[in-house]
Write a structure and sequence with these properties.
Layout: E1 4-7, H1 11-27, E2 33-36, H2 53-59, E3 67-71, H3 87-103, E4 109-112, H4 115-122
Parallel strand pairs: 1-2, 1-4, 2-3
Length: 141
């Protein structure tokens, strides 16, 4: 059984996570989907760029009780610095995300992300809405 759901904060992944895990969210008190900025897609085109935090919170106001925005901040969607579309920035995001997952107390974690980020993170390609199971070793691999 799922202990934690985490998703990219881009609108399409938030919508996918809410749709896919609605029954799970409703089945237990306090269940939430954590939105993690490191999961955002690579690229600087509009469809791969997130919305400002306040806009995102307004868009999903009806789901506010099930979405955890604590891993976001004002400006998280700006593709500069650590979110620049570059190899070094992407590697840093992958390391940070792996460390974040490894630091969690939950052991059964569902991740809703994007193709290019997951290819870079896991080294394999995914079909749209494909589900796979992975195990994180103590070494973080």
């Amino acid at each position: 059984s799922i202990e934690l759901a985490v998703a990219s904060p881009l609108r399409r992944t938030v919508e996918t996570a809410l749709g896919a895990f609605g029954p799970w969210l409703r089945a237990g008190q306090g269940r939430r989907i954590v939105l993690n900025a490191d999961l955002q897609e690579t690229g600087e085109v509009r469809c791969d760029t997130g919305s400002p935090l306040l806009e995102l919170q307004e868009r999903f106001a009806e789901s506010a009780g099930t979405l955890d925005f604590s891993e976001l901040w004002s400006g998280w969607e700006v593709k500069q610095g650590e979110f620049l579309d570059s190899g070094d920035a992407l590697k840093a995001r992958m390391v940070r995300f792996r460390e974040w997952i490894a630091s969690r107390e939950e052991s059964k974690i569902v991740v809703v992300g994007h193709h290019n980020f997951l290819v870079a993170l896991l080294g394999v390609t995914f079909l749209n809405c494909e589900v796979r199971k992975y195990f994180l070793s103590p070494e973080g691999a």
